[in-house]
Amino acid sequence: LEHNVASRLRLSGLCVLLQILNILLFAVFVRYSPESSSSLCSLQLNCSRRNQDSGFQHPRFRDVHLQVLLGFGLLVAFLGRYGPGSVVISILIVSFAIQWAVLIQGFLYFFHNGKIYMGAPSMVSADFCTAAVLISTGAVLGRVNPVQMLLLALLEVILCALNEYILLSLMGVSDSGRSLTVHTFGAYFGLMVSRILHQPHMDKRRREDQQDTGHQPDVFAVVGTIYLWIFWPSFTSATTVHDNAEPWAVLNTYFSLVASTVATFILSLVLYEESTPRMVQIQDATLAGAAVMGMAGEMLVTPFGALIAGFLAGLISLLGFRFFTPVLHFRLKIQDTCGVHNVHGIPGILGALLGTLLTLLATADAYGDRLELVFPLVAQGSRTAVDQAFLQLCALPLTLLFATLGGCLTG
Amino acid sequence: LEHNVASRLRLSGLCVLLQILNILLFAVFVRYSPESSSSLCSLQLNCSRRNQDSGFQHPRFRDVHLQVLLGFGLLVAFLGRYGPGSVVISILIVSFAIQWAVLIQGFLYFFHNGKIYMGAPSMVSADFCTAAVLISTGAVLGRVNPVQMLLLALLEVILCALNEYILLSLMGVSDSGRSLTVHTFGAYFGLMVSRILHQPHMDKRRREDQQDTGHQPDVFAVVGTIYLWIFWPSFTSATTVHDNAEPWAVLNTYFSLVASTVATFILSLVLYEESTPRMVQIQDATLAGAAVMGMAGEMLVTPFGALIAGFLAGLISLLGFRFFTPVLHFRLKIQDTCGVHNVHGIPGILGALLGTLLTLLATADAYGDRLELVFPLVAQGSRTAVDQAFLQLCALPLTLLFATLGGCLTG
Amino acid sequence: LEHNVASRLRLSGLCVLLQILNILLFAVFVRYSPESSSSLCSLQLNCSRRNQDSGFQHPRFRDVHLQVLLGFGLLVAFLGRYGPGSVVISILIVSFAIQWAVLIQGFLYFFHNGKIYMGAPSMVSADFCTAAVLISTGAVLGRVNPVQMLLLALLEVILCALNEYILLSLMGVSDSGRSLTVHTFGAYFGLMVSRILHQPHMDKRRREDQQDTGHQPDVFAVVGTIYLWIFWPSFTSATTVHDNAEPWAVLNTYFSLVASTVATFILSLVLYEESTPRMVQIQDATLAGAAVMGMAGEMLVTPFGALIAGFLAGLISLLGFRFFTPVLHFRLKIQDTCGVHNVHGIPGILGALLGTLLTLLATADAYGDRLELVFPLVAQGSRTAVDQAFLQLCALPLTLLFATLGGCLTG
């Protein structure tokens, strides 16, 4: 009991400290960007194509928020025992990580004259960062206490923002749906932390906990799946730079989701002794199908490509759960509470490879006017398609390296 | 047990087959329409009024998707026993039907030079088709296995697309909210299939199942009702051709929902021995109130018309449940698991009749500028209002005929 | 039993009466505004800044609806016993109150030549009014029967519309997020009704009921909280007159939510003997954090202001639950079923005071071009900032007076 009171007070104290720190930093550095408001209106008026900031629209912003909170909150909630409790912690993590990410990303991107001028776009970037934190959280859930989770969020936001800055701004990699910077980074960061924190005696208890899944999680899984279906395509296309490229990203993601769901049906009926797949599997398939479209979403020019990619992602994700998770668990001593490796890690890598392949094949013929929009540097002639593909490929090991080192440090 | 394994493998095999078929057909025929993306932007710029494709907006697209998945998925879920399981099957049906409907409708509408050039609008049409399939599914739920459901979807998508093509494109019928092509068609198709599949010995078991509704369904019904309220108006107005006509369709649908809900309260307190109506009844009333506004939504010029129509729809739907469902069940040997006849069938017909009446009364005086938008052919003088009304009326028996024959065949 | 039948028939009869009354009044008075449709389109085209009607956009309209139904419906639902039943009653109240509010507000605002010309904006105003009714309902829930609730809605809509008309139109108070006219008015109206209806013997029974909260409410609370997070910012900014001012209102509300959530964590860990706060507390904190931003949302020029305000609102709301509700209950004999005083009343007043303070500080320097948008009268020179602040301050006791007197009368 004593221990309990002490841990509550420690959590409470840490929250006070961090919140005061945030308020102070905001007071000193953050101001609203004076143009943020007017740019939103001018968007309606002249729809300038090449300006990322003005390409931002309010409804999309809300969709991303919805993703972060609902999608991942529910994902995390699917373990029966951690159900409502884990949602509460998720919301705390989100509350803190959003403020922190606005600050960190503000220092990297929007820092002028000693002030960060923020607008709605910086809020969207912060949401992406928060998503990566939540994915990592999924890997260690149930084995760390809230204080540790807050510290994890503190460090991961910094590293995630740094990784994103290097990839997107310095290297010019195209990763609009964040296959790499969110899914892959979040998954491997979480897995490394999980590896470091591995405690054999905790292990057994956890596996028992996992059994007592009641009926509750199914409700969450149903609602969660439906929302992923509806809002994920917007998430994937939230930062596609150009309004023109968006519809394809949305449609590609839908097709990928559809194919991934069918793949899950096929495989789950063969692999497991059940007459219908469980709802949670459908949810995972949906996530995997969406993660694989992260980078390639705006590049794919034919719908059947999305169908095939989604189909493969669905198959791989389920095979991973069946055969790879036990290996991970017993050989490498990495526990993966919510299966983030199969749902985010593998599909993220697959998506990055697919994006690289598509970049390699990018020619003016296939893309027409769109080439300029999807790969501006290639279209301007300052880079060849092969160079761009090489950079895209390089981004993958770089992200893995960042995630692994970061995870080790944090652990 | 053996039987169980065999049926699982059969379902799995069918899924593989259909998915591969879909991928192949997509690979051969379907390409993204090159204009789809640019038209979306030009919409913001010059808002051209008469072009259906450019009248499409992303948020509406998502709303329709949400409808299809959530609305009907939850509708189907309200039978306790089939709860989570039926949602899983619904999602499989949706996954397959969307791909299939894109293909079939593509062949009818968007087929040029051996390729289907698809964009976001064809996705919306596919969603409408999927909605009809889900309504039919509601009528036969619990009495057919997933393999039969997939075959039902396979056939119904073809017939539904054909019916829609004849009504909307060839006859020029105005049915923006799909009273006829989705609600009426789906309901009667499902009922006919249910009639053909009637097996007396199954009957008893089902009625027992129906009893064990726990607390769970109520949660679904609450969430489902709220979402229907929020998103149905967008569904009804998703394909209103002209941006100008939309707000009336939305407002009319809201008023209809409101009146229908009040009607349900009034009648359920009199008919049933309960102090408050059950949540599921409210949900049905909401659906009925929305279905009746399908065709007439954009035609009504006064709010009180919508109030009266919704009020009648609510009354009729509830009276149907009380007095007509038993007749249907024992005399005509049609089982209607989710009451689709009362919720979709009757209100759909009522909506079509109302639409006909309104078309008959359509004069340049009442509509002003809007006449040109709602009834373009009448405004251009190539048709009189009476002709248009006659065509609208003809569309009703035609749809019924299509649905009945199709249901027989499929059964 | 006899009593039960009689009360059901009375409710049913009242519904019939009110609905017929509504239909008749709509038939006589309400017509769609002919410009409503075209103004929506012209918005896209020339984005005129100073016209409130044309500043209306469809997605926002839906968000407000969602708020009203989901947010408050779920808020009300959190008492286990009244769970599904109270949602049903809420929907009846909403159905009636929306029609009634359209009428009453129509007479005040849109009455020309003996007709009310309504469009989408009048629907939004009606939704705000309905929200106030639902807040009041939360205070008396479980102690009044549905017939009394309908009568309460009947009277409150009239008073709320009158209050809003005086404040916003006659006095020119700026209250875009409705801190005063919705939150404060609704809370104190409900509390006064609750005071008048106080019956000592009912008291004990209620407290027992409150105990048997099962697992169910948690699901509702989770879903409710997530939705409040997502859609409340849109609610707050739904009627910000000028498109330009919106993004700040949205961002301020987000920051306020975030800070309020963290504050709840901090305090609930100290005050209560639990390792994590309960979901319902998080939900209340979210509401409080949003309510405080109602008036000040579009005025705040720095993000850290929103962080501090939200933090304070979260602290005060929780302290109120712990220390003030018992005082209210035993000393003042006011029962507050859902804690609306802490969640809506106090933060509403706080928000109004903050708004006054900010108005006082409003100078052309800090606001720049925005001054004209947020305080048009000040910018035009017809009022000084101090006058405006004085009026904002006067609006607070006026609203309290209206609410208290109205509550007494209704009781």
TrEMBL record, chains A, B, C:
Residues 24-410 form the Ammonium transporter AmtB-like domain. One of its GO terms (molecular function) is ammonium channel activity. Its main location: membrane. It is a multi-pass membrane protein. Keywords: Ammonia transport, Cell membrane, Glycoprotein, Membrane, Transmembrane, Transmembrane helix, Transport. The chain crosses the membrane at residues 12-30, 64-80, 87-111, 123-142, 149-168, 219-241, 253-272, 307-325, 346-368, 388-409. GO terms for cellular component: plasma membrane. InterPro entries: Ammonium/urea_transptr, NH4_transpt_AmtB-like_dom, RhesusRHD. GO terms for biological process: ammonium homeostasis. It is found in: Cell membrane. It comes from the Eukaryota. Gene3D superfamilies: Ammonium transporter AmtB like domains. Belongs to the ammonium transporter (TC 2.A.49) family. Rh subfamily. This is RHBGB protein.
